[in-house]
Amino acid sequence: MVSLGTIRAGWGSASTVAESFVVTENERIRSFLDGTSIETLPAVAAKTDCFRALVPQGTAVYIACIPGTDPNAMIATARRLSDEGLVPVPHLPSRGFESLVEFERYLGRLVEEAGVTRVLALGGDADRPAGPFTETMDMLRTGLFQRFGIGRIGVAGHPDGNRAIPANIVARALADKQAFADETGIDVHIVTQFSFDPDRIVAWDRSLRASGIRLPIHIGMAGPAKLQSLIKYAAMCGVATSARMFSKQAFNLARMASVSAPDQMTRALATYRAEDPDAGIVGAHLFTFGGLRRAADWLEAARAGEFSLTRDGFTVERSLG
Hints:
Elements: H1 4-11, H2 14-33, E1 37-40, H3 42-46, E2 60-63, H4 71-83, E3 87-93, H5 100-114, E4 118-122, H6 136-140, H7 144-147, E5 152-157, H8 167-184, E6 187-192, H9 198-210, E7 217-222, E8 225-226, H10 227-237, H11 240-247, E9 259-260, H12 263-275, E10 281-287, H13 292-303, E11 307-309, E12 314-316
Parallel strand pairs: 1-2, 1-10, 2-3, 3-4, 4-5, 5-6, 6-7, 7-10
Antiparallel strand pairs: 8-9, 11-12
Helix pairs in contact: 2-12, 4-5, 10-11
């Protein structure tokens, strides 16, 4: 017969078990954030002295293209990021191109002048297309990405739904992109709109897997920012469900001006990815609504393990820029 003392000896001390739990949680969080991409705008980049001082060499930096952005500024930003040892990932809004020729010339310049090998292909915010492209697949079907050697293509995902496009059309579009990836061998992955609700994200991920979508998913998260700013951006970007859930947290914070970081989201999704072998989520993409330096400082501290676990999330142990 095995004695109770023997069983207890096998368990080890309570402190050892607690320490093992902390190490596991820390490792999951750090692993989840390893390879996290970050986002900027040409106007923000122009005011940033050195990206290498903010993020490690090899980091993927997405270059957002809002309506009215000068294509030359996009190319110059991509070239600068390449020169600094980072990986530029320019947004390509399909509905913004006036012709196939314009798209071909622009993509060629991004590759030849800025060394671009990755892009984020989007429909764009325009209500009406400026030219022949009405959706992302119209760009993908041109064959130009293959011709110019673009090896990785991000496409949009919306865990909260897309307020401008019916759910059945969104589902069809993702199925088409999955077929494109299978046929071409190009690394197509999903980069989502930011969300604040990990339960909704997990349910969305599982629904995609059930429908046959196997594209890897990079979850968009809002970097550290004031709560009032996050709620404003959520309303602007159509993540109303998550915004309502997130706004309730205002009553748990000292002030609406308090800075909120995506620690709870990160910890919950890190646990999900570690415990569910069928999870499609592979990592994170960080939006910089609260400032590029603040987001970069938070990410660097978290990836270095410079944080303390809280009940649901964690707190980084350094001041944020």
